[in-house]
TrEMBL record:
Signal peptide: none annotated. This is Peptidase S8, subtilisin-related. InterPro entries: S8pro/Inhibitor_I9, S8pro/Inhibitor_I9_sf. Residues 1-62 form the Inhibitor I9 domain. It comes from Parasponia andersonii (Sponia andersonii).
Length: 63
């Protein structure tokens, strides 16, 4: 996730990640989140969900 793209409405990165996931997936359950060296989260996604997430401007990479 592009840390500089986090909307001010989200006090915590977790809430921003959760909102991003809910936009592409029925479940926003994450395995873990990262906020130190990198900013992001881990979650198993379907191919369609991964493709939708990749298209979000704040997403730097989907692996």
């Amino acid at each position: 996730m592009d840390k500089s793209s986090k909307p001010a409405a989200f006090d915590e990165h977790f809430n921003w990640y959760e909102s991003s996931l809910k936009a592409v997936s029925e479940s926003a359950n994450m395995f873990y989140t990262c906020n130190l060296a990198i900013h992001g989260f881990a979650k198993r996604l379907s191919e369609k969900e991964a493709e939708l997430l990749k298209r979000r401007p704040s997403v730097l990479s989907v692996i």
